[in-house]
Amino acid sequence: MSIDPITLSVIQSGLQQVCDEMDLSFSRAAFSPVIAEANDRSDGIYSAVDGSLIAQGSSGLPVFVGVMQYSTRVLIEMIAAGKAAAPQPGDIYIVNDPYLGGTHLMDVRFAMPVYRNGHIFCWLSNTGHWPDTGGAVPGGFSASATSVEQEGLRLPPVRLFKQGVLDPEIYAIICSNIRVADQRIGDVKAQAAALLVGEKRLVRLLDRYGDDTVTEAIAELRVRASQQMRTNIRLIPDGTYTSVAYVDSDGVVNEPLEIRLAITARDGELSFDFSDSSKPCRGPMNSVLATTLSSVYLAMRHIFPDVPISAGAFEPLTVIRPEGTFLDAQYPRPVSGCAAEVSQRIAEAVFSALVEALPDRVTASPAGSSGNFALGGFDPDRGQNFVMYQISGGGYGGNADHDGLANGCSTIGISKAPPVEIMEQQYPVLYHRYALREGSGGAGKHRGGFGLDYEIELRRGEATASFVMDHGRFGPPGALGGADGAPNTVTLTRNGTRMTPDHLSKAQDIPLKPGDRVRVQTPGGGGYGDPFTRLPEAVAEDVRLSRYSISDAKTMFGVALKPDGSVDADGTKALRAEAEAA
Fold first, then answer.
1. DSSP state of 209
2. How far, in Å, CA of 390 to CA of 423, rounded?
3. Please, are residues 332 and 280 in contact by the beta-carbon 8 Å criterion?
4. Contact call for residues 335 and 287 (beta carbons, < 8 A)
């Protein structure tokens, strides 16, 4: 290596800062709360040769790491084959086609070439979750779609901006196919502006250190990321590790889908085999290949978070293409649940397979659902249509060191739920409840974190509600003797009558009138380790804080408490001895 370590470190930080500034610019300028408040977006730098990842913003969704790498490579290949228009400086492509390296249709990707001396040095790309791209239901999360056309407008790579100017014809086509179209210009311009900010910051870095030096640094960082990942993988004893994770249903056929995984560790490399998983499904829980790959990558990022985000980190990971399963969706299979839900079941399968091999690094299963809830209708006070999109967190799994985090973000990203105050200002709803779901964490030596419990009332007008969530049939699995977390629940109150969707947490087009309510209780995380080895004092503290009852302390953790809430040491000893004997 000719580049010195200090310069290498500075360039690495500089590339990261370029992406972080793109993330910040995108969120600050965006119109939709799902981007501006929830940060459901990501920005990165990608190779001009093969689209491989160079750097990604630290506050971007991890699930987009592999997705944008895949989609950028597909774009480069399509340009080379003449299937997409050749770029010019200032061009920005738009694409959301899931089968061309995407997720679901609401995740819209922009890509822009950065030129140096007349040649493309790299690509900048970002993804933003648009609150609506048309389709059968407001928000795009059609729980019973049977083809991708029912999910919204599908865009191949086209130049939305040509030499810096928005193409009015392409934009008109987009606006003619989506709801609340007049509001999209804010997100479109924010997404483009983020790329322009990244270009300015990257050019400054290149001018300072020179193109050759930065190119050398990028290559060296990729090599080091690969070496670091291989070193970490060698902590896993050679062998094959298996697991099974379940998707509640596909939204159409009310039967679980199986993700069957076999991970083989050998000489610093891992191979992932999903070939025994369920066949392609009728409903929208199919996963496109790019999302399946990215889900594996993000799971390994959870396990080895110190490995830099670079294409090199993925080189020791081989995912055998799961042809003939619902994890390799082909047109026209519907896919609206792939990124938000199936991706998290894939990560869960990775965690479950490796927790015994790496007990100090892998956690019990987290809530593993983005809690996708879309409400669309007409607000008579404002005289306009609206599409509200709500995401929600859940409990993280317990681990070898401590209890799981309560109401954490989803496994696939760092997105947070939009503030209640913003949602009530923007949409005709009232939140009656927004609290932790006490007691939802699975029991364990280190218990799972708690989910979220919220309830929304429609205040005026009419609307339809749609849900694409998961873990309603099965709670997040515990690990190493820990209990499962509580499953997801959805309850609707219409005209005073309570109901639960047939598919538990998947439904669409449920009509609501003023006064009708929707209550969602998100999953708690799985418990880690034998619950009867949990410190009695920790159980007593949970009871004091009303997280569990005195009865729960006895039955779930084997802890007897006195009337004043303190630990009954003799009673606890007897309970645990009895359990051990049994």
1. H
2. 9
3. no
4. yes
Of the pLDDT bands very low, low, confident and very high (cuts 50, 70, 90), residue 1 is low
Q: Which residue in this structure is represented by tokens 């082909």?
A: 330
Nearest in space to 131 (alpha carbons), one of 415, 374, 341, 427: 374
Q: What are phi and psi of 123, to 5 degrees?
A: -115, 140
**Quick one: how far is CA 41 from the chain centroid?**
10
Q: How far apart are CA 240 and CA 224, in angstroms?
A: 26
User: Of 463, 447, 576, 470, nearest to 517 (Cα)?
Assistant: 463
Angle between helices 211-233 and 184-209 (to 10 degrees): 100
Average pLDDT over residues 463-479: 96
- CA–CA separation, 68 vs 110, rounded Å? 10
User: What H or E segment, with its residue span, contains residue 10?
Assistant: helix 5-29
pLDDT at 130: 94
Q: Could you give the CA distance from residue 106 to residue 569 in angstroms, rounded to a whole number?
A: 55
- Predicted pLDDT of residue 372: 92
How far CA 433 is from CA of 406, 455, 457, 468, 562, in Å, comes to: 17, 5, 10, 21, 32
Q: Distance between CA atoms of 388 and 430, rounded to whole angstroms? A: 13
Asked if residue 353 lies in contact with residue 168, where contact means CB atoms within 8 angstroms, the answer is no
Q: Is the pLDDT of residue 404 over 80?
A: yes
194-226 residue pLDDT tens: 999 999 999 999 999 999 999 999 999 999 999
How far apart, in whole angstroms, are the C-alpha atoms of residue 352 and residue 74? Answer: 32
- The secondary structure of residue 170, as a DSSP letter, is H
Report CA-CA distances (Å) from 20 to 58, 113, 152, 257, 471: 6, 18, 30, 37, 33
CA 133, 136, 139, 145 dihedral sign is negative
Distance CA 14, CA 453 (A): 41
How many C-beta atoms surround the C-beta of residue 120 within 10 A?
Answer: 16
Nearest Cα residue to 464 out of 489, 433, 494: 494
Across the beta sheet with 372-379, what order do the strands follow? 384-390, 372-379, 462-468, 506-512
Backbone angles phi, psi at 251, to 5 degrees: 90, -15
| 193 DSSP assignment | H
DSSP assigned state of 358: S
Q: Is the dihedral of CA 426, 428, 432, 435 positive or negative?
A: negative
